[in-house]
Every structure is written in structure tokens, then in C-alpha cells.
Predict the structure of Tryptophan--tRNA ligase.
Amino acid sequence: MTDKILTGDRPTGQLHLGHYVGSLRARVELQNQHPQTILIADMQGLTDNGHNPAKVAENILNVLADYLAVGIDPQRTTLCLQSGLPALAELTQFYANLVTVSRLERNPTVKAEIASKEFGASIPAGFLTYPISQAADITAFRATLVPVGDDQLPMIEQTNEVVRKVNNVAGQELLVECRALIGKASRLPGVDGKAKMSKSLGNALVLGASEKDISKAVKKMYTDPGHLRIEDPGKVEGNVVFTYLDAFHPDEALVAGLKEHYQRGGLGDGQVKKVLEECLQELLAPIRERRERFIADKGELMRILQAGTQAAREETGVVLQDLKKAFGLPIL
């Protein structure tokens, strides 16, 4: 069975290791198996950056360069800009009439993000309704598979609720439901061990990180506070260094051996961190080099983005017309 894949990121900064392990790695593999679209979600980025639109605008090409650097091929994956697809805004408006405010407020992902951003009573309307916008993104491409972190599962659930409501109103199977694809490590903690990796929390290691930045980040990583002497038995649960080794080291047997040694005692934190740093340096060096080449040619980046957005505009326009016809609305 061939799936249609839709995924994307908000361009509010460079992409980081959390994005890579969460879905970027899967996207590179999936583009060889299924039709795939990656959406640079600039309009969604504005839902909590409306007061500072430059933060979004200046990172659109940064994010595109990150995609290309990790191996996304514009010949096999459609790369497009959310704000360049007018059908998405219309679909969002249609769906907004089928979703209640109370349902949006109950969305666990929205609740968690509102709390983390400390909006209080000053929640931007666009932020509260972004699950509807995300439903429009997914359904506009008739996507059936969406690579996400496990914190985004409520968004997939709400998208499928919208699909069922639209199909009920239309009296036909107009839209298709989707399912989530969770990566090997669906959520990566920050280098400080607190919460998930996030640009806004300042605990992220970006894909274009320098050798020095990587070394500094690994040295700061949280291990087992009870592991005071090398000979002491240590814990691997909640130990950020081992979490990263599980996520990124290609030799699972080696990591398993390190864990066993650490747990019985006799293995120092510095030795484990050395293995992790070597792993991350090897992973990120070629990504960093490719990224530097791509970002140096902004004209080519714009050409790739324009071509992908034009193709996506035609595809999403068909879904919008189908919905209008089903709803009995004129197409002018």
C-alpha cells in the first residue's frame, strides 16, 4: 500500500537534533517509498510570533537548507511554503465552523503549549485554533501518514475528527483519515535534561552546530547524580547521555555493553560522553558541510521553494474545489 505523506516544521529557527530523531530521519527514508510533501509552516509559526514576523521570515530558507542537508531530495519530495497555498486558509475557515472552542481548549497538545508559553488569558486566537489549520494542511494533501512526535498525537486525533465531520456534512467520503508515524525516539530531551529539546528553551543542538558547540553541549549533559565515583554502579534510566546514545549511535550492541558496564560500576561519565561526542561529531559534520553549501546559494533555495509551492498550490486547489462542490458552493 502506498501512503501519501505530509509533514513539516515551523520556521522559527534552525532545525535541531530533536527534529532529526523525531521525524527528519524518517522523512529521508520515506521519500524513496511514498509520495511526500514537506510544508514549511510559516503561518503556523506566526501564531505565537505575530509580534515578531521577522523571526519567521528570516528562518524560511534556514529550514529549507536543513531539509536538503539531511538528504531530502526536491526531485522526490515536494517542498512548499504554507503561506503560498491559499487553499489552506479557505479550508481552515470551513473547518473552523465545525470545531468548538471548548474542543480546542481540551486538546492536550494545545493545553501544554499554552502553559509552557505562559500566555495566561492573552492567548492569540491563531494559536488556539492552530489544530484546525493543521487539519487543513493534512487534508489538503489527502495525506494518510504523518511523521510526528508523540506529543502531537492529539493533533492527529483532532484532524481525523474534522475529516469525519466534513464527510458527514458532505454525505460522502470526501476526505481521508490519517495515522501518525512515531520515530524511534519520539521525543528527545534537551541537552540540560529538562523537558523536550526546544529552541525557545535554549537547550537544543542545531543541525548546523560547530564542532565546538557539539563538544560543549555533550560536556554539559546530565548523567546520574548518584554516580559519584567511577567504581559506583550508575543508572541509565533518565540519563541523558544514554538517551542520546540510544537515539543516534549506530552500534546497538556497543551501547548495550556500555549500559551494562555503567550499571555494574567501573565506567566513568567522561568515557561515556566521549563515545557520544564522537558519534554526534560524525553524524553532524557532513550535515553541517552540506548545509553551508546550500545556504550560500539563496537563489537556488528560492527556486526549489517556488517550484514546490506551485505544484502544491495546484494539488491543494483540487481538494478545495471538491469540498466546495460537495457543500454546494459556487466555484468562481
Notes: The mean pLDDT is 93.
